[in-house]
Design brief:
The structure is a homodimer. By secondary structure, chain A is α+β, with helices and mostly antiparallel strands. Chain A has 14 helices and 13 strands. At the A-B interface, strand 1 of A face strand 1 of B.
Chain lengths: 397, 397
């Protein structure tokens, strides 16, 4: 009997004698070894809302097929995937699906939590609405969300929030229970609540306070994306998941619905809570490569994609851990822009979630992982090297 | 702005001044008026597991199109749908989609909770496994689930559970907080837990006790279906949602994944927790009409479908509320069999969920509703008359 099949949040004692006594819960699903099951079964741990693919009955758009070429024969790629706790790995080259690997029980139909790759999807949705004139990135947050007037974000511009240069009293220490990021997890339903926690994410955001002057320096802060999602809701009068569905997901030819976790206040956890299949995540990278078009149709304004891919000001990120890997790197519109000569951009989430886009070779790499550490320089380096190796192999193909 | 769009479990005060202050919660989602939102957003209230449609990238099977004919012009059909709190209504005639109606914000992509229509889907899955020799309906429950040996179900046969003639100390009073059916709701995560409740559905089932001799009389008892699901898990070594996906849902040409609610023990709520689109539910009725085949391929054994459609022994249901509507009615393999000359069979769930199958006209009717009462004779009569009116119109077409 397959152990992993039974690794539910469960009374596994009914399988007593089969050597299986793991028990995945809301307390442990983000920790190894429980995370391997947890990251691919998030709807069984937290409530979720669907992000629909195209209308009922519409077939998904198939990727053109092609051979994997060198990739299939390279043991170092295999070593990289195993060393970095990979659950799924999908490579598109010139729009064709050239390499696809799944590990453990994770398969093409399964949806993996994206963590902060969700942020990059939120910003593409903001880009669509900006293109329609519903959001002006130069406006203040409180212009769109009056309830945030007295919060840290009230007088920040939308662009500052998109680029994470808003100054917020917020600790993004994933392993410190006293940090704001862990409190936000609890409020979002990702961890068991504590009595003193705010009722929901809306209230949590309203209580955040400023910690300096906006626009001066890069401060990675997950809450900013949820502020963007609240803006999306207010300017459309619709719920976040429905807007992402209507404006983005349903227009990419996706093979499956995505989903997003929701809290007791009905708030969709925009900063980390989307889950989707590996192939569908690759379509997000392809959308970047194709300048915001999918299937020959405009989805996100070209100007928004160009602005994102050109990156932000590397000076504001001086001293950041990020620049230890990418010395000229910046963060623009919720995407990481290494500032290399290739024009690479990527989206990244803790525990090894990635979409990597290499324009010169027209390569998109989507990777789901269950790395034990949320973040580490070693993991960032290993992933950067692994993705570059894949791109090298395709360049020489 | 559309009120219903915002009717989330939520801090609707952020929409203050718009006249909207409803708040859907785990306490009230089964009660009108909150149920209208709750029944179509179950994944936002309870954790869920996916029941996958066909493999990634496979297109759904489209229904042949046809005209609605008489149905479109009949105001009494419209009256029936409005009077019975309809959310969705789909009619297939000779395999073609001839009539489709949606109300409120519910649409073709939305998934509605099936309530006890879920039971009929469970039994079709049991039928598949019986056809493969994995389950023998004549065997005792404890043969497949030793942990249930001391429970009410231990010495009941699988067939008795399928037909609901197991004798169990269990009140199916939906509005009595002291009833077993409400306790089971709480254990399943459908209502807030009470301290003394069993940990999960597995434990709940083990604690049920016998109340007489099995096989003597029909006793509608939701817990029986969960016993069947536990048998399904034990004979396959796989989780219930995965088996329903593999053996049934993925083989019907469905347009969307279904989902099923899960409890803290990882148990899928087989007796009432499936949600799916209206069109996909109609495919279940079509499967019955087509003697267990879908798209020309065998899915459920013909013998199982035949045995179900012939019905059970009406004598064991003597005195039941059911026989006030269908005097010759029986319950066989978790389907209702009125015992009329037409050979009608149907699946039904509280608050107005139905699949109605009329063999002479080759008609399938799927209906989702948010009726305020869970069950009532008046509602059963109104639905029976409404479905017969639709069938009449198609017969004369």
């Amino acid at each position: 009997m397959n152990r992993s099949l039974l690794a539910g949040p469960g009374r596994i004692d009914r399988y007593a004698g089969q050597g299986f006594n793991e028990h995945v819960t809301l307390e442990n699903w983000q920790d190894a070894p429980f995370s391997r099951w947890g990251f691919s079964h998030v709807s069984e741990l937290i409530t979720t809302a669907p992000i629909h693919r195209a209308g009922a009955g519409e077939p998904p758009v198939r990727f053109p097929e092609s051979t994997a070429g060198e990739l299939d024969r390279c043991s170092d790629v295999d070593d990289f995937l195993r060393a970095t706790h990979t659950d799924a790995f999908v490579v598109l080259h010139r729009g064709a699906l050239v390499y696809e690997r799944y590990f453990g029980t994770f398969g093409p139909q399964d949806r993996h939590i994206l963590m902060s790759v969700s942020k990059s999807i939120c910003a593409l949705t903001v880009g669509v609405l900006a293109g329609r004139g519903l959001i002006d990135p130069r406006e203040s947050v409180s212009h769109y969300v009056p309830l945030l007037k007295d919060s840290a974000y009230g007088d920040a511009s939308v662009q500052q929030v998109l680029d994470m240069t808003a100054a917020v009293r917020y600790s993004e220490d994933y392993v410190d229970p006293a940090s704001e990021v862990q409190q936000q997890d609890r409020v979002a339903g990702w961890r068991p609540r504590l009595e003193a926690d705010p009722a929901d994410t809306y209230e949590f955001l309203m209580l955040l306070r400023r910690a300096g002057e906006h626009g001066r320096s890069f401060q990675y802060c997950s809450a900013g994306t949820d502020v963007l999602a609240w803006i999306v809701e207010n300017v459309t009068g619709a719920r976040y998941a429905d807007v992402v569905s209507r404006e983005l997901w349903s227009r990419l030819g996706c093979g499956a619905d995505a989903l997003v976790t929701t809290d007791s206040g009905g708030f969709a956890f925009a900063n980390g809570g989307i889950a989707c299949t590996a192939r569908d995540l690759a379509r997000i990278g392809q959308l970047m490569l194709d300048d915001g078009e999918a299937g020959g149709k405009r989805v996100v304004p070209s100007a928004w994609i160009g602005d994102t891919m050109r990156g932000g000001d590397p000076l504001v990120a001086r001293g950041s851990a990020y620049q230890k890997i990418h010395p000229n790197g910046s963060y623009r519109n919720q995407w990481w822009v290494p500032g290399d000569a290739r024009g690479t951009v990527y989206a990244a989430g803790i525990h090894g979630q990635f979409v990597w886009v290499d324009p010169p070779t027209q390569t998109v790499i989507a990777k789901f992982s269950s790395c034990p550490d949320p973040v580490s320089l070693a993991s960032s380096r290993a992933h950067t090297e692994g993705f570059r190796r894949v791109v090298d192999l395709l360049e020489s193909a």
